[in-house]
Specification:
- The protein has about 100 residues and is an all-alpha fold.
- The chain has 4 helices and no strands.
- Helix 2 (about 35-45) crosses helix 3.
- It is extended.
- The protein starts with 19 loop residues before the first helix and ends in a 13-residue tail after the last helix.
- About 0% of the residues are buried.
Length: about 100
């Protein structure tokens, strides 16, 4: 509907907390998972009825694990629409790094 990507998950927390160490740990876990995509695809893909090559392509080419400008715009648009339809408090503010 918006031509923007939909972000399915983010890590979020209060602005007044230092999350630098947690961010490093989460980034390391993400990088390990991405590097393990071939093993994950071989282990899980067939059980889901997916050929290994398709599962690997999905994990490495279809999923995006970084927030770029378009993803940030998608998050902002989602929040804007959530406000419009009273799904979030109007006093809540969205702040993206």
């Amino acid at each position: 509907m918006t031509s923007l990507p939909f972000v399915f998950a983010v890590w979020a927390g209060p602005r007044d907390h230092d999350f630098a160490d947690l961010a490093r740990r989460l980034e390391a876990a993400r990088d390990l998972g991405v590097a393990s995509a071939p093993m994950i695809a071989a282990d899980v893909g067939p059980g889901m009825g997916w050929p290994v090559a398709l599962a690997e392509r999905y994990l490495t080419a279809r999923l995006v694990f970084h927030l770029g400008p378009r993803q940030r715009s998608g998050i902002k648009k989602f929040f804007e629409l959530a406000r419009r339809y009273d799904l979030v408090s109007p006093v809540e503010e969205l702040s993206l790094p």
